[in-house]
């Protein structure tokens, strides 16, 4: 295999991923994820959409400045609509990277041209040429995406792409924006572009596939079978079926689980148990026939070894007699790379848990790592809660918080239930109007002593943005109508609920604060 057999992996967790409801990330979280993506070995990090807000701009700039300057740094891309203002802003954000990229896009489907942009096809071609030429005047690496390419008239798409190439695009990214196409159609579209667009052989053809019908991976595979050389998924397929594809990536597959866990913890979006490769059941076998086969030879039922994706087999069962060393190797086997300081904090939590539970399961450890480490900056800190509730009683909570100014404040409230009363008491202190849009609780293991994990989502109540300190910052700084998630874990589910709420509030407030000061 030579260089032409390399598939470029473009990661858009920090841009398209972060646009998913509830996935909002603050700058520190974005930076940490970007560092992990660099360790994973992705070739391009799309770090954000700099024109979207001052906070987004700053996040892209910091990723470019810090991760984009590493040895063997990935390319750092910033997204821009096809307009001068967007492109200038994207360039300002990425220019400090060793290898910056401007990614500009304009829709090409008639549905988008008519109903969204309200422009003619001719205007679309004109704007494409101008935008790409302007981007290229600033940056040697320019990616152009015809948004909704999957539903665009191919003949018109070819014309737009030809203009993009002539104007200086170096990568043509073909998005199936609505996740509508079938693998045969999407593969055919990529082949059609390679065969019909003059100059297509001299640029990288890329695929950006959405998963609305669950076909993103299949469509991406069809794309590379038809000549695409940049995609956003498929690494383990190429790795597991080398003879089928004869293609490779620069990805260090042993970093996959760790990356997935980090992103899940920061976005608050849980990975479904039956998710391929990184789900909890990906390497679990419960059927007797499978277990028998696995014991005889893992090849009977496993097409990948867990350690290939960063899960090493660990037979250690931890309990109160386990020492730091055993704990450390368990945490590493679970795919976490913790600093000595973080390990100490989690170890302390582990010891506290051992006083409450005889056997601490892997899921308990994952819950406490997520609870202890992957939390937003603590502007407000939960010091103490006390709740009284029961039949015939009015649920009442007293809450003590330490504020960003270091002052400890206490308040109490009555609610419809214990969690409601805790949230009301917190609201009385923090005074940031918001709406709770989702609340979920699960026991991470079986048994009455299980750790409870709470995930919540809140939305700022922008209409009532003024807070008790008279700052009104919820409505300032172009705060986008976004959802903020939070998670908390504890054997006491009311404490877990309070922690989750503090985590979501802190995330919302750090992002708002960053936007207000940027
Ligand atoms: O899905 C899409 O069309 C996009 C483009 C901006 C690349 O995200």
Number of strands: 16
Q: Output the structural class.
A: alpha/beta
| Hetero groups | 3-methyl-2-oxobutanoic acid
Query: What form results from the Cα inertia axes?
Result: globular
Provide the β-strand percentage band: 15-25%
End-to-end span in angstroms? 47 Å
Rg of Cα set: 25 Å
CATH architecture of the largest domain: Alpha-Beta Barrel
The total tally of domains equals 3
Features:
binds 3-methyl-2-oxobutanoic acid; three-stranded antiparallel beta sheet; Double Stranded RNA Binding Domain; TIM Barrel; eight-stranded parallel beta sheet; alpha/beta; single chain; 16 strands; about 525 residues; 3 domains
How would you summarize the topology of this molecule?
Layout: E1 8-11, H1 27-40, E2 44-48, H2 54-66, E3 75-81, H3 84-94, E4 100-107, H4 110-117, H5 121-138, E5 142-147, H6 154-167, E6 171-176, H7 183-196, E7 204-209, H8 216-225, E8 230-231, H9 235-240, H10 242-245, H11 256-267, H12 288-296, E9 318-319, H13 324-333, H14 340-356, E10 359-360, H15 362-372, E11 381-388, E12 396-402, E13 408-414, H16 418-430, E14 434-443, E15 452-460, E16 484-490, H17 493-517
Parallel strand pairs: 1-2, 1-8, 2-3, 3-4, 4-5, 5-6, 6-7
Antiparallel strand pairs: 9-10, 11-12, 12-13, 14-15, 15-16
The structure holds 3-methyl-2-oxobutanoic acid.
């Amino acid at each position: 295999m030579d260089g032409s057999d390399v598939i470029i992996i473009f990661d858009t967790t920090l841009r398209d991923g972060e646009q998913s409801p509830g996935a909002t990330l603050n700058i520190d979280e974005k930076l940490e994820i970007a560092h992990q993506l660099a360790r994973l070995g992705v070739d391009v990090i799309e770090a954000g959409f700099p024109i979207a807000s001052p906070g987004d701009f700053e996040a892209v700039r910091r990723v470019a400045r810090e991760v984009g300057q590493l040895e063997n740094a990935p390319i750092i891309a910033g997204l821009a609509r096809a307009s001068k203002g967007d492109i200038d802003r994207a360039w300002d954000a990425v220019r400090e990277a060793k290898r910056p990229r401007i990614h500009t896009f304009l829709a090409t489907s008639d549905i988008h041209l008519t109903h969204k942009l309200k422009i003619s096809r001719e205007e679309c071609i004109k704007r494409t040429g101008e935008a790409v030429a302007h981007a290229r005047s600033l940056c040697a690496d320019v990616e152009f995406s015809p948004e909704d390419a999957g539903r665009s008239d191919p003949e018109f798409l070819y014309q737009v792409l030809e203009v993009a190439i002539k104007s200086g695009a170096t990568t043509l990214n073909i998005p199936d924006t609505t996740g509508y196409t079938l693998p045969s159609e999407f593969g055919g579209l990529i082949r059609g572009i390679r065969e019909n667009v003059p100059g297509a052989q001299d640029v990288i053809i890329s695929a950006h596939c959405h998963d609305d019908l669950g076909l993103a991976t299949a469509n991406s595979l069809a794309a590379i079978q038809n000549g695409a050389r940049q995609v956003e998924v498929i690494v383990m397929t190429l790795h597991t079926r080398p003879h089928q594809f004869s293609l490779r990536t620069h990805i260090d597959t042993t970093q996959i689980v760790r990356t997935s866990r980090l992103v899940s913890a920061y976005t608050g979006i849980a990975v479904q148990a039956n998710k391929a490769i990184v789900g909890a059941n990906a390497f679990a076998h419960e059927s007797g026939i499978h277990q028998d086969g696995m014991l005889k030879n893992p090849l009977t039922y496993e097409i990948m070894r867990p350690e290939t994706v960063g899960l090493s087999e660990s037979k250690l069962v931890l309990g109160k007699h386990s020492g730091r060393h055993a704990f450390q190797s368990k945490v590493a086997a679970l795919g976490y790379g913790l600093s000595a300081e973080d390990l100490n904090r989690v170890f302390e939590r582990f010891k506290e848990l051992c006083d409450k539970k005889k056997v601490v399961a892997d899921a308990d450890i994952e819950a406490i790592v997520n609870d202890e480490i992957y939390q937003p900056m603590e502007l407000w800190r939960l010091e103490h809660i006390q709740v009284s509730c029961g039949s015939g009683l009015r649920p009442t909570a007293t809450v003590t918080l330490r504020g960003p100014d270091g002052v400890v404040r206490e308040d109490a409230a009555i609610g419809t239930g214990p969690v409601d009363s805790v949230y009301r008491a917190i609201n009385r202190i923090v005074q940031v109007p918001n709406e709770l849009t989702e609340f979920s609780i699960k026991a991470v293991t079986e048994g009455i002593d299980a750790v409870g994990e709470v995930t919540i989502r809140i939305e700022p109540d922008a209409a009532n943005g003024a807070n008790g300190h008279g700052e009104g910052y919820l409505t300032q700084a172009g705060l986008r109508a976004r959802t903020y998630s939070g998670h908390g874990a504890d054997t006491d589910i009311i404490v877990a609920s309070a922690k989750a709420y503090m985590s979501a509030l802190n995330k919302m407030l750090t992002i708002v604060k960053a936007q207000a000061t940027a």
